[in-house]
Amino acid sequence: MQANTIDLDIKEIRSQFPILDQEVNGKKLIYFDNAATSQTAKAVVDSLIEFYEKDHANIHRGIHTLAERSTKAFEETRERVHQFINSAEKEEIIFTKGTTESINLVASSWSAKFLKKDDEILISQLEHHSNIVPWQLAAERVGAKIKVIPINKKGEIDLDKYKELVNEKTVLVAVNYVSNSLGTINPVKAIIDVAKSVNAITMIDCAQASPHVKIDVQDLSCDFLALSSHKMYGPTGVGVLYGRRELLESIPPYQGGGEMIKDVSFVGTTYNDIPYKFEAGTPNIGEVIAFKYAMDFIDNLGHEAIAAHEHELLTYATEKLNQIPGFIPVGTAENKASVISFLLDNVHPYDLGQLLDARGIAVRTGHHCTQPLMDFLEIDGTVRASFAVYNTKEEIDTFCDALASIVKKFS
């Protein structure tokens, strides 16, 4: 049963993240770089330790006890992801190294089968480089075209202009659910519906959405969807690609090697069934197993409760930051996740990041792997503060006090 917002005990939640209980540069750590990677829940770390101390063995290939235990635990995580995103079946869940590899898998395998000269792929101005470059590579191979869905100055996708771009040549639409740079929550269901009107395939980047938004792939009716464990309080090196069965069965493997085959001979090879057809070689077994506990952590709190707490932090921080002289918000969408990108007059973002680090405050500075977005906004980059369920208003107070102090020094 999911918790209500009022039931969230932030002190108890923070106790599940020992890394937060430390000093950095003589100050208590304040971690506001969650959009880059969230901290790892203790249950996840404990699972990793248990695997490497007790169950470490390769999966799907051995009949001894350790191999069977590790295989069972690995496949339990697949079942858990299937439940977490409500796929039609667990075989539609493929494990990768992360969202980047998931997108590259589709850009390589799907395009090899279906992408043709003069076909059009639509991506938005909000995309991370990992949802731009793979499609550019795919388009270059066959002479297809990339078209860009525009946004307004608030950082919101222009749905009317998007609808004008979609036509009979549109074969794929790739967008993120939540912008990593601005926090914009995109109307992906409407975007998918428009794409379906011309039978275009949809690829949804959920790297930023997965810890904040309840994902239901059947409700979205998307064709492909990608996410990363390390954005969800889990380990690094683990990602998920969801794909509809008929699509996964229709496209060629992404990599060749062990596990993805049925039979191999020097005259030919037959491929394994999905999902194993796309899981060549030995995966990050312990990390995949531990990922299950990250999803448990999220579900035990409840997406609604997490979202409510994070929205409260976002609202509180926005109000306080707007009172700081020279504060310039970047990305003011009506519908936002808990991300604030900003600039300060007379202070370069890199300098600001270092000055905050000296006070034990971790933020991200730069273009956030969204250079085309920064070009559109006519800036080099921003400072980004991103909040997770374990963050507090007290931390925001300290953060704002530090910014006010920095402003005084530069004024």
What layout of secondary structure does this protein have?
Layout: H1 10-15, E1 23-24, E2 27-28, E3 30-31, H2 42-55, H3 65-85, E4 93-96, H4 99-114, E5 120-124, H5 133-142, E6 145-149, H6 159-165, E7 170-176, H7 188-196, E8 201-205, H8 217-220, E9 224-228, E10 239-243, H9 245-250, E11 261-265, E12 268-271, H10 285-301, H11 303-321, E13 327-330, E14 339-344, H12 349-357, E15 361-362, E16 364-366, H13 371-377, E17 382-386, H14 393-410
Parallel strand pairs: 3-15, 5-6, 5-7, 7-8, 8-9
Antiparallel strand pairs: 1-2, 4-10, 9-10, 11-12, 13-14, 14-17, 16-17
Helix pairs in contact: 2-10, 3-10, 4-5, 11-14
Could you give a short description of this structure?
The protein is an alpha/beta fold and 411 residues long. The chain folds into two domains: 5-31 and 302-410, Aspartate Aminotransferase, domain 1 (Alpha-Beta Complex), CATH 3.90.1150.10; 45-299, Aspartate Aminotransferase, domain 2, CATH 3.40.640.10.
Kindly describe this structure.
This protein is α/β, with parallel strands linked by helices. It is built from 14 helices and 17 strands. Helix 8 links the parallel strand 8 and strand 9. Helices cover 40% and strands 17% of the residues. It has two domains: 136 residues, Aspartate Aminotransferase, domain 1, CATH 3.90.1150; 255 residues, Aspartate Aminotransferase, domain 2, CATH 3.40.640.10. The protein is globular and about 75 Å long. The strands form five sheets. A seven-stranded mixed sheet has the order 4-10-9-8-7-5-6, sandwiched between helices. Strands 13-14-17-16 form a four-stranded antiparallel sheet, covered by helices on one side. The N terminus is likely disordered. The longest helix has 21 residues.
